[in-house]
Design the sequence.
């Protein structure tokens, strides 16, 4: 199974598709996030599907249950492989979203997308959570609570940093998907990410998929960067 999800964090529709074509031999899932989707709308998702590739629609829905469910149904009709919502939308929003998606898939014979919950963004650090958000328990405890809430609501997994992957695996079981962004190979800069981890360590901590953007796309030789990351993943298994 190919473990890297490539984050297409670019503005341009045509350039995003060039990247899909360039990396299509080694990558099966491409992530369409807020930047690309806000520029292109759903057309880019359809064009990636036309190339036989899967899409992780990373729009991080965060709203009341009725609105999140409406967006989730639209993502489902687009045929994406996975999409996500913020776990902090609460248990009712997650449950409603799952139930409505399951019902739609049965009714319209659509393959059910995997629904993932965003826990705590990898760009946030423990002290920000405590000093600015006023959350008094540790970041790990917060991520564990959010992950267990997602599991109970019937979500397929969560997005979390490698630092919490092993703990989530322990509390949510072996079938719960863990998708890990904030991946930084040893040669790449952290940029805005705080809770980073190398590809090898994140896999060893139990991540199922690694979301990688700048560690590949911002490197001078992006093919070589991808090869090196893949090698790290292979040696971690
Ligand atoms: O370039 P980099 O590898 O840091 O990109 C990480 C990608 O993962 C970005 O597209 C970002 O939006 C996304 N992401 C994240 N942290 C999360 C969820 C998604 O960095 N918790």
Sequence:
């Amino acid at each position: 199974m190919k473990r890297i999800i490539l984050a297409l964090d670019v503005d341009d529709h045509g350039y995003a598709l060039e990247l899909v074509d360039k990396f299509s031999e080694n990558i099966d899932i491409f992530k369409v996030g807020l930047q690309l989707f806000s520029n292109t709308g759903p057309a880019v998702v359809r064009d990636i599907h036309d190339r036989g590739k899967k899409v992780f629609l990373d729009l991080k829905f965060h709203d009341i249950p009725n609105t999140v469910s409406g967006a989730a149904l639209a993502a489902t009709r687009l045929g994406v492989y996975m999409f996500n919502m913020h776990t902090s939308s609460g248990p009712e929003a997650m449950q409603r979203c799952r139930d409505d998606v399951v019902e739609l898939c049965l009714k319209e014979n659509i393959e059910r997308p995997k629904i993932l919950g965003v826990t705590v963004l990898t760009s946030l650090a423990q002290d920000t959570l405590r000093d600015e958000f006023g959350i008094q328990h540790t970041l790990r405890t917060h991520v564990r609570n959010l992950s267990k809430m997602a599991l109970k609501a019937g979500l397929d997994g969560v997005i979390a940093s490698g630092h919490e992957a092993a703990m989530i695996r322990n509390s949510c079981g072996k079938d719960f998907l863990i998708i890990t962004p904030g991946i930084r190979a040893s040669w790449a800069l952290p940029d805005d990410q705080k809770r980073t981890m190398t590809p090898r360590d994140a896999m060893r901590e139990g991540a199922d998929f690694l979301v990688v953007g700048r560690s590949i796309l911002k490197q001078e030789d992006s093919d070589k960067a991808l090869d090196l990351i893949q090698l790290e993943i292979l040696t971690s298994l």
Remarks:
- The longest strand covers residues 54-61.
- The longest helix spans residues 91-108.
